[in-house]
Amino acid sequence: MSAASVRRVRTHGGSVRRWIGVGAALAVTAGTLVAAPVAAEPNSEAPAAGSLTGRTVFLDPGHQGSADGNRLTKQVPDGRGGTKDCQTTGATAVTGKKEHTINWDIAQLVKAGLESQGARVVMSRADDTGWGGCVDERAEAANRSKADVAVSLHADSTSVGADRGKSGFHMIVPSLPVPDATVASVQAGNGRKASEAMRDAFKRAGFKPANYAGVKDGIQTRSDIAAVNLTRVPAVFVEMGNLSNPEDAKNLSEAKGSSAYALAITNGIKSYLATAPAPAPVPLAPGEADPQVDGSELEDLAALAAVGPLIEELAGATSLEEAQALLLAQGADVSAQVLKAMLAVVYTLFGGKLPI
Ligand SMILES: [Zn+2]
């Protein structure tokens, strides 16, 4: 762990930024837990320095909280010379949880993980209560963000009732060529590489590729996904699991499983970006130490077996001291960024039981 990466930051009082404030406050907590020197930086509102510093990730939690005042069937460009519906409402899990909320919750966790590593994260929608834009508008927002990678999060559905036979994740890649030459070359190259990196991260985390819909080793080829047909930055379209399948639905609906998915997605993005062309380094300010953050710890913690029980224990902690003791038991070599991300996950999903 790098001492320079742990910064003293102010917490934010407002409810709008409460979630961010939780993460920032916990960075300090994590730093003191592992007895690292904390750099005094009174105005440190900038993203954390880390292995993803200088990288931008566009995150698109599929669907929206509400379509009130908008017409889902409005026809928009499909990226193949035709049109398709602006949006759909998304699926509902057999647990009763809506797909748009599952996508939103996991996207928030991924955002925490990426920001803890220094990435800039641009979201396709601002909340899980209102409208989030048509598929073509979201693709255009991804293009405008100039992200290194755009990731759309979805969960599939195969029947109205329970479907015990079909389960697992898949990444949807576009059938090629796509008419737009830039889209075709980006998605055939880095888009495919990013999708395979995501598939591999899911497998490393213990998730199984889908056993249905012609999915081959976690990859499905389709022509009708506007999010990739219209996106000129490398795009990954994730179907995390099948919400009709009771086991997938349970994992995607609950905190422990959601955290494991979020860590797998964060790791998939990290491992793709590790192979993608890096931006030019930003010169250090005079006297500023090079953080030299090693991001490998997050990878090591990705397995559900390692993270799940700890998150459950942390969620059950009734005092800050208890949480600190649990974290200390994990060993002093766990990076502050990872602790921050994990605690942000716990607070986000469990509503923040600890005093902050
Ligand atoms: Zn969906």
How would you explain this protein's 3D organization?
This protein has helices at residues 18-33, 99-116, 135-145, 181-204, 226-229, 246-253, 255-275, 296-300, 304-316, 320-328, 336-350; strands at residues 56-61, 75-77, 83-85, 120-123, 149-156, 170-174, 219-222, 235-242. The longest helix has 24 residues, at 181-204. By secondary structure, it is α/β, with parallel strands linked by helices. The protein starts with 17 loop residues before the first helix and ends in a 6-residue tail after the last helix. The structure holds zinc ion. Residues 62-63, 90, 99, 154 line the site of zinc ion. Zinc ion is lined by residues 62-63, 90, 99, 154.
Topology at a glance:
Blueprint: H1 18-33, E1 56-61, E2 75-77, E3 83-85, H2 99-116, E4 120-123, H3 135-145, E5 149-156, E6 170-174, H4 181-204, E7 219-222, H5 226-229, E8 235-242, H6 246-253, H7 255-275, H8 296-300, H9 304-316, H10 320-328, H11 336-350
Parallel strand pairs: 1-4, 1-5, 5-8, 6-7
Antiparallel strand pairs: 2-3, 6-8
The structure holds zinc ion (ZN).
